[in-house]
Amino acid sequence: MPPPAPFALGFADEAAILDDPAEHLTLFRFAHDPRVVVVDFPSLEEQGRMLDRVGAFTEKAGLPRDRVLTDSELEAAIRERGDTVATFYYGHDYPAAALARFFALADRDHVVLSAPEERLRALVRQLGWLAPDAQGAVISLSREGADANVTRAARAAILHHELSHGGFFVTPAYADYTRRFWLTALTEAERDSVRKFLASEDYDSSDETLMFNEMQAYLMFTDDPHFFLPSFVGMTAARRAALRVAFRRDLPVDWLRDALSDAPAVAAGATVKASERRPNLR
Questions:
Q1: What is the rounded distance in angstroms from the CA atom of residue 219 to the CA atom of residue 260?
Q2: Nearest to 186 by CA among 216, 164, 161
Q3: What is the Cα–Cα distance from 13 to 20, expressed in whole angstroms?
């Protein structure tokens, strides 16, 4: 078999990525930090077939972290959560090191990966992320209209949320800043509430780094009330606003600081019916 054709990666900012029609698999290097690679899928099904097993490996509660699930185990995990390949995740985010470890463990245990997953390996290899200490992150989303939940507003919220994860993964100073903010700006009760919310969304709440990474993405960068409201973590809108002002003040990444300042505030007292909530972000 000839080697797969290299992936074409253009450069694009958030607005240009949002406007991408994603009629076919499209990849971008994020203009403000090219170490963040955005994969835009034409369907949720295609996204899931490439990335769901990685998500199960890195952050889903109750699943192993020391090995890669087999096909039957992955199918069972998706089914037990009432999901499908398409709905297991609406957006993905993984650092280069986690992807390299995923492929190393799959090879160690002779887990046969799918063709889309092997395409992901080809991308990781092309980017040089199988090397030790490689810095990079993959984030993903699907086209507008991929299902009834992926409206333009939802797509924008997913992209904004996932880009903050990309910044977290590729900038150690930002990850450390977020950790310190988590420990010093939030009260113990607030941290517990965030953990409970994330656990209810099927995140592995025993992973402390995952907890403060998701804290920054939800509290600071997710303003669509169908995905997140401060009331979901027992917080008032005023308290969240105060935390965002404090978080932005010394934020060490210019593009993230600008992205935070541009994010619209959710009106105090905003509510969303349970039937109107969209599937949780990742």
A1: 11
A2: 216
A3: 11
Query: Cα dihedral sign for 189, 194, 199, 201?
Result: positive
| CA-atom Rg of the chain in angstroms | 18
- Residues whose CB falls within 8 Å of the CB of residue 278, separated by 6 or more in sequence, listed in order: 90, 149, 154, 224, 226, 227
**Residue 256, C-beta contacts closer than 8 angstroms, at least 6 positions apart:** 164, 167, 174
pTM for the full predicted model: 0.93
CA distance 164 to 93: 10
Residue 6: count of CB within 10 angstroms of its CB: 9
pLDDT digits (tens, 9 = 90+) for 107-135: 999 999 999 999 999 999 999 999 989 99
| Cα Dmax for the chain | 59
Distance in angstroms (rounded) separating the CA atoms of residues 119 and 14: 25
Domain spans, the chain: 9-150, 165-276
